[in-house]
Design goal:
Length: 460
């Protein structure tokens, strides 16, 4: 079987890649497509990006093309713009010792594809295709492992994870993404070296975690990470969720509830999936046990926000990513029923913000599925209809929608600073319940009165 793939199947090299490769050959250099593109083609998966390997050094590649971006010169990588495409080209290299288990001490450029393939992480990632005719080169039994559905480290797994601990998470990520299992010697080495994961950088971890969140079922990768102790080392807060029973409506402990909620959130919304994974992470901290009754988890939403914040900061998420996830975690506990006043609906929308509503409902459905095994969209549909009506009426929802602003209040003699913030908040509370009061005259009156009676007096 294996050899038939090697000889029969060729990587489909497009006209553009052929023209790209010709530039290298004309100068006497080699060019191969390596890694993910070859693997994904053989698996019939969509190819997301092309990585090329060559014996030309970066300066030589720069000389060959008019637009080259020096994306990672230190590691021998440049990005070439060619016929509207962006191609990453990396010089064949070997790596020196990994003293900090993160970065090789040095990188040496070499002339041999063979050595370049041996420094790669897993056999299925060490396949190459000749960029001229698509011939597939398999020096590490990658084709055999592709057929077996196996993630296997190249060479001695202990040594490979010692060099770079991130490979432990990558093994879980690829197994999850490709629906593969992990070879047993590779898995033992992952467990044995899990402690060294404490040295890896947040940025690199984030990339792998997000790729996992974009797989069909992130729970598979997260369970693997649990089984090799990576969860314990990297996300101790999630590890504490294991075995925290909830009972009542819940079918699962907090760990399984969280990872299944993550699966049930939309595949194209990694931030909602991340929020689903973290929404109950405060539960182990606040759990209270009661005799003959189910445990309670009061205020777990706000504790979850604090814990999630520290995880997102460790992962070096952007401010936008962090705010999106934390807003969802903070607001996941709403309990709408038809008795809510319009003021309550406006308050909810103002707090969550209009743009985040759809994500919050996605999180709620995921939470329900993970809790009971089924979804009940009827209540959400009813709530959405109420929200639609409230939005349609165009009434104010936030301080920004008030008919007075800070400058207006300053002219009325209210000093800028915390006092003004309190007054604006009071005005908002008033008009959320009674939108008719949102006129400049009326708000000015309320503001002055409130400031005199509640703030100035308290101060004196
Ligand atoms: P995808 O792009 O779908 O995530 P990929 O295989 O292209 O998959 P990348 O992370 O883009 O994965 O890495 C490209 C290639 O570089 C890999 O296929 C592998 O050969 C090599 N590689 C990447 N990271 C490492 C690492 N930490 N150790 C060893 N080799 C690595
Ligand atoms: Mg890639």
């Amino acid at each position: 079987m294996t050899s038939s793939i090697t000889t029969m199947v060729r990587f489909p090299v497009s006209q553009t890649i052929r023209a790209f490769a010709r530039r290298f050959f004309e100068q006497g250099f080699q060019l191969y497509i390596v890694g993910g593109a070859v693997r994904d083609f053989l698996l019939g998966r969509k190819i997301t990006d092309y990585d090329f390997a060559t014996d030309a050094v970066p300066e030589q590649v720069i000389d060959m093309f008019s637009t080259v971006i020096p994306t990672g010169m230190k590691h021998g990588t440049v990005t070439v713009r060619f016929h509207g495409e962006s191609y990453e080209v990396t010089t064949f290299r070997i790596e020196g010792d990994y003293h900090d288990r993160r970065h090789p001490e040095s990188v040496t450029f070499i002339r041999s594809l063979e050595q370049d393939l041996s420094r790669r992480d897993f056999t299925v990632n060490a396949l190459a295709a000749d960029a001229a005719d698509g011939t597939i080169i398999d020096l590490h039994e990658g084709l055999q492992d592709l057929q077996k559905g196996l993630i296997r480290a190249i060479g001695d797994p202990v040594q490979r994870f010692e060099e770079d601990a991130l490979r432990i998470v990558r093994a879980c990520r690829f197994a999850c993404q490709l629906h593969f299992s992990v070879d047993s010697a590779t898995l033992s080495a992952m467990s044995a070296l899990a402690d060294s994961l404490s040295h890896i950088s947040g940025e690199r971890l984030k990339i792998e975690l997000f790729k996992m969140l974009e797989a069909d079922r992130p729970s598979i990768g997260l369970e693997l990470m649990k089984s090799c102790r990576a969860v314990e080392i990297l996300f101790p807060e999630l590890h504490h969720c294991i075995g925290v029973e909830q009972k009542g409506m819940h079918r699962h402990d907090v760990w399984y509830h969280s990872i299944y909620a993550c699966d049930a959130a939309p595949i194209h919304k990694p931030l909602v999936r991340l929020a689903a994974l973290l929404h109950d992470i405060g539960k182990p901290v606040v759990v209270q046990h009661h005799e003959n009754e189910r445990p309670t988890f009061y205020h777990h939403d706000s504790v979850s926000v604090a814990i999630a914040r520290s995880i997102l900061t460790r992962l070096k998420c952007s401010n936008d990513e962090r705010d999106t996830v934390l807003n969802l975690v903070a607001n996941h506990m709403f309990h709408y029923d038809g008795q809510w006043s319009d003021g309550a609906v406006r308050r909810f929308v103002g707090r969550v913000t209009v743009d985040a509503l759809e994500d919050l409902f996605d999180l709620r459905l995921a939470d329900q599925i993970a809790t009971t095994g089924s979804r009940n969209s009827a209540a959400i549909l009813e709530f959405k209809e109420r929200i639609r009506l409230v939005l349609e009426s165009g009434n104010a929802l936030t301080v920004k929608d008030l008919e007075v602003n800070g400058n207006d209040l300053a002219q009325l003699g209210i000093p800028k600073g915390p006092a003004m913030g309190t007054v604006l908040q009071e005005l908002l509370e008033t008009i959320l319940d009674d939108p008719k009061q949102n006129t400049k005259e009326r708000l000015s009156e309320i503001a002055v009165q409130f400031y005199r009676q509640r703030i100035q007096i308290n101060k004196s």
